[in-house]
């Protein structure tokens, strides 16, 4: 856990030009406070301790405006810029070296059991107020634009997605304009655009 905390601090130094010195960052970067409270709560959650992990993350939300469920899995070198309004659900998974801006939501649709929230790959940037709902997969090296909405659709690796609903506008360095593929569970439900529309209507 200590190693991850150190890497979270380094992520701020790498990504935030306003982080001018160590003391200022440690004292004033409230998203960092929320992440470290989550790290501690997650450790207790993995031990099976009841109530206390949730209470710690509630304190983190009041202090920073960032809400991270202690059951979420978040990788190394995680950076949240500003932070207010960020919500990360219980079964969300976030890879290494990811960057979230304020208002990002990794939520559920209310129509799934078990795995209910998105899985995010490594080196993913998610812009301000982007909303990702359902047990979708987002590949490595993805950029998701501000206010993008993705419901019940997977995001391939190495692409840029913008809009509501989200569309692929760059893939493997080339400009494109493509629909996102159906999420894995929607494909199992019928592997068709009709199945995708039904899944999105559920969301």
State the main characteristics.
203 residues, alpha/beta, UDP N-Acetylglucosamine Acyltransferase, domain 1, 2 domains, seven-stranded mixed beta sheet, five-stranded parallel beta sheet, 6 helices, 33% helix
Kindly report the spatial arrangement of strands forming the biggest sheet: 3-6-9-12-14-15-16
Quickly count the helices: 6
Q: Which structural category fits the helices and strands?
A: alpha/beta
The helix content is: 25-40%
Our measurement of the CA-to-CA distance between the termini, rounded to an integer number of angstroms, reads: 35 Å
Note poorly predicted spans: none
What is the approximate shape?
Answer: globular
Q: What is the C-level CATH assignment of the largest domain?
A: Mainly Beta
Order of helices and strands: HHHHEEEEEEEEEEEEEEEEHH
Proportion of β residues? 15-25%
Brief description of this entry?
With 203 residues, this protein is α/β, with parallel strands linked by helices. The protein folds into two domains: 1-70, no CATH class; 89-203, UDP N-Acetylglucosamine Acyltransferase, domain 1 (3 Solenoid).
Kindly describe this structure:
The protein has six helices and 16 strands. It is α/β, with parallel strands linked by helices and 203 residues long. The N and C termini lie far apart (35 Å). It has two domains: 1-70, no CATH class; 89-203, Hexapeptide repeat proteins (UDP N-Acetylglucosamine Acyltransferase, domain 1, 3 Solenoid), CATH 2.160.10.10. It is globular and about 45 Å long. The mean pLDDT is 91.
């Amino acid at each position: 856990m200590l190693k991850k905390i150190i890497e979270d601090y380094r992520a701020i130094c790498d990504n935030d030009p306003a982080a001018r010195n160590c003391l200022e960052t440690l004292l004033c970067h409230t998203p960092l406070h929320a992440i470290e409270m989550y790290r501690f709560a997650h450790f207790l959650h993995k031990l099976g301790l009841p109530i206390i992990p949730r209470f710690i993350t509630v304190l983190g939300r009041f202090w920073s405006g960032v809400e991270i469920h202690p059951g979420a899995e978040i990788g190394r070198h995680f950076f949240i810029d500003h932070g207010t309004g960020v919500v990360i659900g219980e079964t969300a998974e976030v890879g290494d070296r990811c960057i979230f801006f304020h208002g990002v939501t990794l939520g559920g649709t209310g129509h799934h059991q078990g795995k209910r929230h998105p899985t995010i790959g490594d080196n993913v940037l998610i812009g301000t107020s982007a909303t990702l709902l359902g047990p979708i997969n987002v590949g490595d090296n993805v950029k998701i634009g501000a206010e993008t909405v993705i419901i019940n659709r997977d995001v391939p690796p190495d692409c840029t997605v913008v809009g509501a609903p989200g569309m692929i506008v760059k893939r493997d360095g080339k400009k494109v304009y493509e629909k996102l593929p159906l999420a894995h569970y929607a494909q199992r439900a019928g592997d068709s655009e009709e199945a995708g529309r039904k899944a999105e209507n559920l969301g």
